[in-house]
Design brief:
Largest sheet: 4 strands, antiparallel
Strand order of the largest sheet: 2-3-1-4
Distance between the termini: 13 Å
Number of helices: 2
Mean pLDDT: 92
Number of strands: 4
Low-confidence stretches: none
Order of helices and strands: EHEEHE
Length: 96
Amino acid sequence: MKKYEVMFIVKSTNESDNIKKYAEEMKNIVTENKGKIVEFNELGEKKLAYPIKKEINGYYYVMVIEAQNETISELDRKALINENILRHLIIKLDEE
């Protein structure tokens, strides 16, 4: 399995419980597709550099995962579909 870093931004106009629910959904996608979450960090609410979908703030999350290519493809697909995820970025980490 390869290591990846996944960063995603959730709309801050949602209620606090819903924001955590969307973060849990992203974690569940990884675990349901035989991936492993190595590290999960909630960075909190931050001002965006520029408005995205008329939003000026967002909740930032970063997770380091170990997963196969199929898991990453599914995570990418679900993040694009979910309208409450403003942006996401998946980076493959170097092998150590």
